[in-house]
Amino acid sequence: MVNPGCYTGMRLKFMHQQLAEYNKKKTDVDRQAFVLMTIRLFLKHFPVSLGEDEPSEEHLSSIDDSVVEPEAPLPDEGTEEYRKAWEEQLDRAKKEKKRGEQIRRWLKAHHKQQPMGTAHFFWAQENKEAVRALKKEDVEEEVEKPKKKKKGKKEKKEAEKETEEGVESEDESTTKKKSNGVLTSYQALCKSEFEKLDPSEQKEWKELGELNLAHKSEMYTAITKGQTMYGQSGEFAQPVLDVIAELTRGSLRRQNTWTQWHAFW
After folding, report:
1. DSSP designation for 52
2. Cα gap 117→199, rounded to integer Å
3. pTM of the predicted model, to two decimals?
4. Which among 1, 109, 111, 261 could disulfide-bond with 237, CB atoms 3.0 to 4.6 Å apart, if both were Cys?
């Protein structure tokens, strides 16, 4: 379960940046490799020793993401310093493992959940009338195709038959290419119009897009949590049903527990 409160401030901003890149990955292998890199970078920027505090600007500016820092050497074995250092290392490893699993779940749960997460798409979503007008202009600029000559009844029937046969044998990949072409054209239109805005406006839309994504992420988490609780309610209901069965001398059987629980309430 993704904890909606596990990322705030700079951590949430970092995760949204990583999510945008994660959504671009095409294969499971690429996604798994990216998750491992994200965990490494997250722990580097936000070490578990910070707790939930924000890192300082000095700490962030001193980080080199391309360098993998080695573990600090332990003191001489058998000493009190060695024991303390070993326990601290174990405690840190447990916390880092927990954070890594949390990052993995968060990315997986939010993967392509918000297709309008990027700024130019969010701008297009909030300015639908402007986008429609632009699309209409593009259509009007196209060369008008000549009208086809009307066919007789016999020719019309033959044409319909040929069309039906053609539809049945049409290659699915051709249909996908057409739909992808429409989507690509829409994306290009949104991006080109967004880039015409002033830098300050672009920045504002980016911030609004991030807030919108964060809000939808929290909504998704709440829904998922509610579904899980609903699915587990039968486990909590069973002891109550057992007591009722005893009081009614078995008239309320333990079969179909889920149906009985909801019928009872």
Report:
1. T
2. 18
3. 0.42
4. 261
